[in-house]
Amino acid sequence: MFSKASFETNERPLLTGKTQYNENFPVGSFLLSKKVRPLIGAFYRFARTADDIADDPVLDSSTKLAQLDKLDQTLQEPQEHPPAAGGTRAAWHLKQRLQHSGFTVCQPRALLLAFRRDAVNADTQSWADLLDYCSLSANPVGRFLLEIHHETTHAALMASDALCTALQVLNHLQDCHKDYTALNRVYVPADWLAAEGLDRRILGERRAPPGLLRIFNHTLDKVEALLTVARHLPAAIAYRRFRLEAAVIVALALRLMRRLRRQDMLAHFNGLKSWDWIVATTMGVAAGLRGNMQNRAAGPAILMCSAAELKGAVASDIEEDLF
Question: Domain check: are 275 and 133 in the same one?
């Protein structure tokens, strides 16, 4: 799914060892135009660099914040030549590509706000708090992709935000044990834990009690509502290749949500398999091809129904998994 050449740089290896090949969802896949892949690669490299800083187990919070500030400064200040070394090179290269293509640094700067929060390990207090975090950590990624494809209708932005938030929450769910034990970080809303008589320490166990399983299922109900809105994204996109990419990601998100429904995230998690990718790609491309320009007329209807859909999706409104 990925174009290796689009991401090759002379940068140092990532601290976490994680690359676009380890993600649950495509990053700059072959479905997208070659013209935008270098921009996406630079954006991904910048985001991964900032994520490495926020997740570094050696650095204290003040050092992490200082390094993230340097990335932000690099995005904003004029600098003709790249920094000699360090993570700021990723910020410099991204800024150069964005400026050359006529885009701003607004979306990568928004991401840095989320990484600053991660740097101080601020626990999530409520669902509203988690949505606010996702508006900084995830939604700017979708908005960046929409921006570089010149797809900035209100319907597309709203559906993209719903999809990106859903993807972020799914990622938090599947990694909740690892985030707690390795990073001392908790994205499960504290008020939901308290309502079940639990606290953050339960995430360090290897088996979820009934109360935590209820929280997991409640979270997935929220994700399902978001994906109900997100399913309208392909129809809101005019550019066919980008529309296909969006449809594949929606299909992958639906499969991951259903897989998480059947698992205890503390005991184990078997993520998306090669078969999931094959099925989701096939279904997504088929759905994207059906979403021709006439579907864009559905935009006003999307705006009218989304508020109700976000309050709770009806299971029958989600396509049944064919496999």
Answer: yes
